[in-house]
Predict the structure.
Amino acid sequence: MAPVRIYRIDAFTTVRGEGNPAGVVTDARGLSDAQMQAIARELGHSETAFVLPPRGDDHDIHVRFFSPTVEVPVCGHATVGAHFALALEGGTPGTRRQLTGAGVQAVETRQDAGGIVVRIRQNAPEFDTPLRDERVRELTDALGLAHDELDPRGPVQFVSTGHGKLMVPIRSRERLYALRPDMARLAALDERIGTRGYFVFTLDAEPGDDARTHGRMFAPGIGIEEDPVTGNANGPMGAWLVKHGLLAAHDGEVRFRARQRNGAGRGGFMDVAVSVRDGEPVAVAIEGRAVLGDRVER
């Protein structure tokens, strides 16, 4: 295997060692599927992005994403990491169309006073039927929640903007951070519920909080017990909030800040923008910043 440039990027943060670490290979030409999977496994991040040449005229780059165990269709924080790394290598600001396993996404990179900002236009939101009550009870048992700790203002529901997650709204931020799920039981629910990720979040905010929401995301079925910050969870959550009337939204675009951290205390933030038409969410974008961890060649 020819030498490849590998970056570790801390995405969705402005502080090194915070946010969500992603691996990035900025030129993955010549790597086989097995080699990409081996690099992702060795790095051990929740996802590693591999940037490849375009395969057609409808996109500018092709990006593939691997967790330590499987390829996934798309990943928000690794997309931020990939475009941040391309900017560090001298890529010009502007919009690139990236082909992923979830289709073609427009990704804008721009510079402001705070540094590089990456804006990802996700797919149009899709909503599954709310989870049946018996499945909700299995889920709350696996999470270690009492049923009445769920937020009754909206349903437990799978929402996707490309690589969806199950939305699990709860009442209390204190309970959110105290959660200690049974990961084996949670992973065993994947096939019955139809999800590979469980996003538990709350609108419980304190005075002066800059964020509208706080969340945690668990995906033990794909080798990620807990993700520090997840673009493909917070984006769909924005659509969910509009859909169920929990985010004041008129036609146009509504924006808010979302924060997420894991049980060990590592986390970060992103800004979520939901486009609204006739009171319904029709498009979602997320914006994130990043910090260089390190770069190696191997």
About this structure: The chain is about 20% helix and 40% strand. The two ends are 9 Å apart (CA to CA). Helices lie at 33-43, 76-88, 133-143, 173-178, 183-188, 190-193, 231-243.
